[in-house]
Amino acid sequence: MSDEVMLAIADVCRRAAAGDLEARLPSVGETDAAIECRTALNDLLDVIDAFVREAGAASAAAAEGRFHRRFLTPGMRGRFRSAASQISDSIDEMFRSAERLAAATDARLALADELEHAVLRVSEQVATAATEMGASANGLADFARTAVTEAEHGMETVHSLRTAADQILTAVDLINQVAKQTRLLALNATIEAARAGEAGLGFSVVAGEVKTLADETSGSSGEIMGQVTKVQDAAAGAVHVLETVTESIREMSGLTNGIATAIEGSHDMDGLSQLAEVLRSEVSRFVETARQS
Fold it and tell me: Which residues cross the membrane (predicted)?
């Protein structure tokens, strides 16, 4: 071949290597060798052009999710056909992976929905329970405070009863002293009446009656002292019981106040309702992120 033909072939090859797959060798002569060379080179460029175009079209379709678009193999032979089959197999695997990914995405979204519904339901139940428990705890705390107040009033009443009993004992002791002095006076009067003889008989009868009255008064005073002693003992027992009950109620009041604080929260601690809202907010944010992933 002439240098001119060789330069033409080199120019077409350089253009094809640069990516210009539309470059073709023009007629370089009418000899059999020239025609064969031109036909062979242009056929090669046609096959390369078709392979590149089909590979690009099939890849672009797969990237858009149109996996039904296959690599068209008519005219492909040898390694071109093998490479085309590998590209089609890769597209099939991409299709299966896309299906698995879609199934995983659907499962993730379904799980996110279930989690959101479950958390919303739980947070609502917790908030409702917290409200009810808070009301109950506050009511119990109010009851405990009222019970402590009433128990303290009861202790004051019992202490007043013990004080009254002490005063009664003092009065009864005074009565006993008066009765004792009365018996002595009645005895002296009886002795003097006996000395007076007939003239003192009436006075002697009166003195006897006074002595009898003093004895009865002394006996009644003894019974009163016994009853008052029993009242004092009962009052002492009641004070002990009331003190124990009051202390227990105070402890219960402290516990219920702690429960109410835990439920309703304080300046440095969230309550159950706030925690339920935080839980719902955090899970909603997590679910939204999971849906967008």
Answer: none
Q: What is the DSSP letter of 180?
A: H
Cα(134)–Cα(248) distance, rounded to whole angstroms?
Answer: 21
Q: Which residue type is seen at 280?
A: R
User: Comparing C-alpha atoms, which of 174, 157, 181 is closest to residue 224?
Assistant: 174
Identify the CA nearest to 141 among candidates 264, 17, 269: 264
Write down the pTM of the prediction.
Answer: 0.41
Give residue-wise pLDDT tens across range 121-130. 776 776 676 6
Residue 22 phi/psi, 5° resolution?
A: -90, -5
Exposed/middle/buried for residue 213 (C-beta within 10 Å: 0-12, 13-18, 19+): middle
At 42 the pLDDT is 92
pLDDT tens digits for range 141-195: 777 778 778 777 777 777 777 787 777 778 777 777 776 777 777 777 777 777 7
| 193: CB partners within 8 A, 6+ apart | 200, 201, 203, 204, 207
Instruction: Identify the CA nearest to 272 among candidates 133, 138, 127, 140.
Output: 127
Rounded CA-CA distance 236/132 in Å is: 41
CA gap 256, 250 in Å, rounded: 10
Tell me the CB-side half-sphere exposure of residue 232, using CA atoms within 13 A: 13
Tokens matching residue 143:
């009851």
Which residue in the block uniquely carries the two structure tokens 């479950």?
Answer: 118
Of the chain, the percentage scoring pLDDT greater than 90 comes to 6
CA distance 188 to 181: 11
Q: CA 196 to CA 206: how far, in whole Å?
A: 14
Asked if 239 and 176 count as a contact pair (C-beta separation under 8 A), the reply is no
